[in-house]
What we know:
This protein has 201 residues and is of the alpha+beta class.
Amino acid sequence: MPIRTNRGRAAVYRRLWGWPLRSPNHLIATIVGFAVVIIVFTSVIPAITKGARGGGTTNNGAAVTTSQTAGQVGVLPSGVPTISLPTKAPSPSSAPPSAAPDPNAAVTADLWADAWITRPADNKNATWLETLKPYTTEEWLPQLATVDPGNLPTALEGKVTLKESHADSVVYDVGLKGGGKLEMTLVKRADKWLVHKSDRV
């Protein structure tokens, strides 16, 4: 019959709490029951909890590994298709194409070489530059302002020889007395060939 009043519930609770104290057997049975419950809680529940934590750690570890792999530079996530980029075209060669030599360039190179080795009577650089001016570009003439004509060779050996020939530039060289060569680079300016650079090699 269901308990419908507070007094009835209190009577039932008194019977339950008083049952272990009715006899020594009841007390022993109660203690054994509590011991069994404690043993179950201390052995079974930790094992279940540990298993649940182990599974969570594995999943988290996999998630961390995946996120680290995805965050690495140059590593694509699995399943992402790779796109092949077009190969960069090679840069064009900077050397201009060769061309047939102009005879007028050889004449200018020969005249410039003769003026280069000719020492003026006063042995001054300004006088020496005046002899070179008709065959030299305005850009290269100031570069020769520090040259001492007295330190230059006094004669050429052999003839002016073509080394390179292009549509708007040529390179000639000629032997020098005492060794070495004089190399001259000529450019075309207003249908006229002029020495734009010179080196002793």
